[in-house]
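S2.1 Query sequence (Germin-like protein)
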Amino acid sequence: MQKRNILFARELSIKVFEGRCALNHLLVGNAFEYIETLSGYRAQWAVMEKHSFGINRFEFCGLHFGYLKYVDDLISALKVLVYKNGDSTSLQDTCPTATPVRQAVFINGFPCKNPATIIASDFKTSRLNHAGNTDNFRRSTTSMVTAAEFPGLNTLGLSIARTDIAVDGLVFPHAHPRASEMFYVSRGVVIAGFIDTRNQLFQKTLREGDVVVFPRGLLHFSLNAGFDLATIFSVLNSQNPGTVSSVDALFEPAGSDALLDSLLRTRLLNLSATKADPMSA
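Output structure tokens follow.
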């Protein structure tokens, strides 16, 4: 029993050392597997501490039982390191999206251009410098620029969007499964909100210069509460945030304009009037 415990303590020491190296050098390529392994060792160590197994309660093979606190902190730090960004960390300065004629290999993201062919234009876009067409039943439009359209965004963990909402227009509830969103009002007055997993509504009235954030994966919406065109710019922490529209998922696109207008526009306006934050105005 004593020999087995000594070997186990050595293994735990090695795993803790590997974890410190991962933190020091940001080597998180296999961090998910490592966190699971270290968590398993930590659970075994907790059992040993609980039952004591004839081991000195305060020190064993140079490891204190209070060491569990250090291991817990290490696991937490690694989790923060892994989850801090929406996308994985870039391993080079720049990686503009390459656009091969035929893609033979499919990877999680986009391949990089040949460094010798990278130019300044890869890092500039004019896709958001003009208002979109709001001549539709929503009276709004959103233009999103991801790494697919803007090569310079590749590996940066960012996307940018512009939303224009005409008077009485709105953006129906939708979610971004891979990103949180920072929503900045450049012009006009907007009511914006999101709904959490408890079905609780959080919303504010926003004016020029105001910012609100939408947590990743939660349904959110916005509507024009002013008397002029509203313009919003958004930054999302993923180069490919994805968009899931509850409206498009539930209703047929064709012939449903009147139904959507009746069900959703009225409902959102009622929610805005009855559940508004007292500090919204």
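Helices lie at 2-25, 31-51, 67-83, 246-250, 257-274. Confidence is low (pLDDT under 50) at residues 20-30, 53-65.
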